[in-house]
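Run log, item B.
One chain of 82 residues. Sequence copied directly from the ordering sheet:
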Amino acid sequence: MEAVNTIEIIGYFASVMVAISLMMKNIIWLRWLNFVGCTLFVIYGVFISAWPVAGMNAFVACINIYHLTKIYRAKALEQAIA
């Protein structure tokens, strides 16, 4: 019974993180918070055997990492040129 409560808490926390991320004006904060929320949803989805939830959120987490990498590389390039 204890594990079910922990898993539900992970699901709720994931929902909160994704919701908060969508309120961010700063794209970097949005991407990071959304990545954390998606990662938690992957964990949640695996534990409850909801493979579409786990798969879709894993995909979105990868998209967030891709864009964060792109943003940080562009910033590094800007600093190197300046």
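Observations after the first pass:
- The longest helix spans residues 51-81.
- The chain has a mean pLDDT of 94.
Flagged for discussion on Thursday.
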